[in-house]
Amino acid sequence: MNGSRSEVTIRWFAVALMLLASGCLGGTEYTILGEAAGSATVMTADAVDVKADGVSTATILVEVKDANRVTLTQGGDDVALSTTRGTLSPVVDLHTGFYSAKLTSTTAGKATVSGSVNGQLISTGNPEVTFVP
Questions:
Q1: 16-47 pLDDT, tens per residue?
Q2: How far is 82 from 94, CA to CA, in rounded Å?
Q3: CA distance 105 to 88
Q4: Mean pLDDT of the chain
Q5: How much is the pTM?
Q6: Residue 55, class by beta-carbon neighbours within 10 Å (0-12 exposed, 13-18 middle, 19+ buried)?
Q7: Where are the domains of the chain?
Q8: 42-132 fold
Q9: What whole-number distance in Å separates Cα of residue 32 and Cα of residue 109?
């Protein structure tokens, strides 16, 4: 097998193992990220009580994760949010796996935010914000 494809592959694999074992790769860590998973993605709000004046806001933050609960490190996912009270600004892609929107209301009462990522229901978080007079 002098110079055959399988021999070359085996040699490269052996070199890679030696480099890893000797630490010559500088401790660089590589993570393979999966696709966004609604069941692992998390939503939070930065406020629980917000004045119902149409100006004060709660920031809704969406942290998109894969099925292994690893936060994705890039943007580009389709994140959609809805609320039971008030108005949500358009969702902003922060290009870090995080997305944000502002929630405001002129009517007092509780708002529950729900959402989806790439059409999958986000099942963790569903933040509640109470708008107070």
A1: 555 555 555 555 554 556 899 999 999 999 99
A2: 19
A3: 9
A4: 85
A5: 0.75
A6: exposed
A7: 1-30, 42-132
A8: Immunoglobulin-like (2.60.40)
A9: 43
